Structure formats: C-alpha cells, structure tokens
Amino acid sequence: MSTKADCRIAFAEALIALAEADRRVVAVASDSVGSSNLKEFKRRFPERLVNVGIAEQNLVGVSAGLASAGKIPFACAASCFLTARALEQVKVDLAYSRHNVKLCGMSSGLAYGELGPTHHSIEDLAWMRVIANMTVVVPADPVETAQAVRAAAAMDGPVFLRLSRLPVPDVHPAGYAFQVGRAALLRQGLDVTLVAAGVTVAPALEAAGLLDADGISAAVLNLSTIRPIDRESIVAAASRGPIVTVEEHTVYGGLGSAVAEAVVTSRPVRMRMLGVPGVFAPTGSAEFLLAHFGLTPEGIRGAARSLVRES
C-alpha cells in the first residue's frame, strides 16, 4: 500500500477549494482550529471562520443559523464532544429542521487513545445513524475524504462526516469516484466478505491478503456511507457467504449493526462483528487499542478464518 497520510489534510484542502469557488462555504469551530486543520482556511478566509469556543451545543446552533441565512457551514469539532454534548441540537436544530449543515467529527474512534474513555469516540455512528434526515459518511483514505467533502457540500441537508487523525494509506484504485450511498468493492472474493469503513479498510485489505495463505478467498467491501446504506452491495456479499464487519466503534449500533439489519431482512447469513465489544476502551495508544480489540490484519484474519470454518 502507499505511504500513509492524515485525512484531515485532504479535508482542509477540499474545504479551501470549495470556499474559493463558493462564498457560501464557511467553517465553524469549537476551539478546534488546529485539531481540525483549519489554520490555512482561517488565514485565507478569516471572515468566514467562526470560533465559538469550547461550546459544542452553540457550535451546532450557530451553524444552523448560518445555514438558515444561506451559508453552507462545516461545523468542526472532536467527534466525541460534537456528537455527545450536542446530540439534542443535532437532532432538533439540524435534522428535524433540515438545516444544510455539514458536521465534521474530527479525531473519531480511538485516535485520542492516551486521553482515555472521555475522548474515545466509539458511539458516534450509533448516535448519528438513528437520527432521521442525517447522512453518515466515514471516508477510508485521503482521496475518498476529499470527494466526500465535495459531495457533502453539494447535498442539501445535514451530513455527518467521521474523520480520523490516524494516518492511513490510499486504498482506492486510480479513478475511484465516491458516491453517497454506494459501497466500493475493493477486492473480489468467493468465501467471505470483510466489510469495513474508515481506518479499518486498510487492515481489512491486508487481512484478505493473509487469508490467501489459508486457502480462503476474501472480498473486501468499503462501506463508507453508513446511512443511507448500500443494501444491494450487502445482499450481494451475503450471497457469496459469511460476512465479517470491522469497525473502530462499539459493536452496538454502528457499522456491524447496520449490515446485520440489512442481512437479516434480506439475505440471512452468518456474521462476525469486530469492534469494541460494549465496553469502555482502556487508555493507551491508538495502535495498542486497535490491537487490543483485534482490529489488525492478523485479528481480522483470525476472525474470518474461524467464521468460514464454522460455516
């Protein structure tokens, strides 16, 4: 795979390009200009960046007001605080009111590892995907991140972009075109499908390569849009055989649950869901935590191998 890069860089570059082309594009931050990689945006467009301070509820409310005035706000904050502290405002001020705000949940998942459970954002997908009118996207690499930012800006309505600070390699082939609501089959396989999103896509691809040595042919599906979900691609995966979902999130209510809902109502098949198993993650580096919960190529390989042999 290619050299790893921080998707926040691709996010910021795409946002600046959008702002250059459309004066309606603005950024709103909660004392998160640096962590959201908005310093260059602030330098280029100082009058189009609003910093509300550490007040995520206000961030969402201000963004809703800007949207009602015809702006396209990108509201940027640490995902753990943006989704937990401001959940009522997201539900009422954005989703129920259908305001055209793009929520950017930064440093999601286990990226703030050493800061512990208060900063782990392992519930955000569950909270966001159950809210009506909300589109939920988890880009897997810088290319997909930039395209997702542009797609979000082009949509009319609230969008939640889940962005990590963990460096990731490019996982998509040249010419890849992101579409909201469409999964990307990154690797063909006949025996099992590994379904992942965000930072877990690259280790899923590596695991598929390792499974070749076990005589297991594994497909890899990047399900970057969690809502609306690509039911057709999931049913196609279930028709091939068992499914392993891999997410940097609790196994309750996130990617695995979304896939299971589609599977059980359309094409029942055996599944294994890898993620945080309904506990508060311990304190430690992101790399330690990913290994602790089996979200590594070897961990995914073992789960897939076990599932295939049980089937």
Per DSSP E runs of 2 or more residues, the count of β-strands stands at 12
Helical content class: 25-40%
Number of helices in the DSSP assignment: 12
Low-confidence spans: none
Largest sheet: 7 strands, mixed
Kindly provide the radius of gyration, computed on alpha-carbon positions and rounded to a whole number of angstroms: 19 Å
The chain-level structural class is alpha/beta
CATH structural architecture of the largest domain: 3-Layer(aba) Sandwich
Task: Characterise this structure.
The protein has 311 residues and is of the alpha/beta class. It has two domains: 7-162, Thiamin diphosphate (ThDP)-binding fold, Pyr/PP domains (Rossmann fold), CATH 3.40.50; 184-310, 3-Layer(aba) Sandwich (Rossmann fold), CATH 3.40.50. The chain has twelve helices and twelve strands. It has helices at residues 7-21, 39-44, 56-68, 79-84, 87-96, 124-129, 142-154, 201-212, 231-240, 255-266, 286-292, 297-310; strands spanning 25-29, 49-51, 72-78, 102-106, 135-137, 159-162, 184-187, 192-196, 218-222, 225-227, 243-250, 271-276. The strands form two sheets. The protein has a seven-stranded mixed beta sheet, with helices on both faces. Strands 7-9-8-11-12 form a five-stranded mixed beta sheet, with helices on both faces. Strand 1 (25-29), helix 2 and strand 2 (49-51) form a beta-alpha-beta unit. It is globular. The chain starts with 6 loop residues before the first helix and ends with a helix.
